[in-house]
Write a structure and sequence with these properties.
The protein is of the alpha+beta class and 113 residues long. The protein has a single domain, classed as Glutaredoxin (3-Layer(aba) Sandwich), CATH 3.40.30. The protein has four helices and four strands. A hairpin with a 2-residue loop joins β3 and β4. α2 crosses α4. It is globular.
């Protein structure tokens, strides 16, 4: 899977793409200049390939979307926030592994239609 296959989302599309999505959503708050973001990318892509039929995935560039960064209290990159039914249901930050990402997604899927 190519990193460009994870769509970028901004404040103007947030409600339509993230909060109105019927499936669980995983959003990565990241920066193209962030070394830990680049380090975790292969693990993220592995998880995206495993769950893409059941979960929506998006990226937020923190330098361009400060309102979203403040709204979700993102303090470091990368930060992963899982949403279900338009509400955040879990988060991870830093150099996370595949198991941690998978558990975050599984938790978001629990109780989802």
């Amino acid at each position: 899977m190519d990193p460009s296959e994870i769509p970028m989302v901004g404040d103007s599309q947030w409600k339509r793409l993230v909060l109105s999505e019927p499936r669980p959503v995983l959003v990565e708050f990241w920066s193209p200049n962030c070394a830990p973001c680049r380090a975790v990318e292969p693990r993220l892509l592995s998880v995206v390939a495993q769950y893409r039929d059941r979960v929506a995935f998006y990226r937020v560039t923190v330098e361009e979307e400060e309102d979203l960064v403040w709204a979700y209290e993102v303090m470091s990159t990368p930060t992963f926030i899982a949403f279900r039914d338009s509400e955040p249901v879990g988060a991870l930050a830093g150099d996370v592994d595949v198991t941690e990402l998978g558990n975050l997604i599984e938790d978001a899927m629990a109780g989802a239609p």
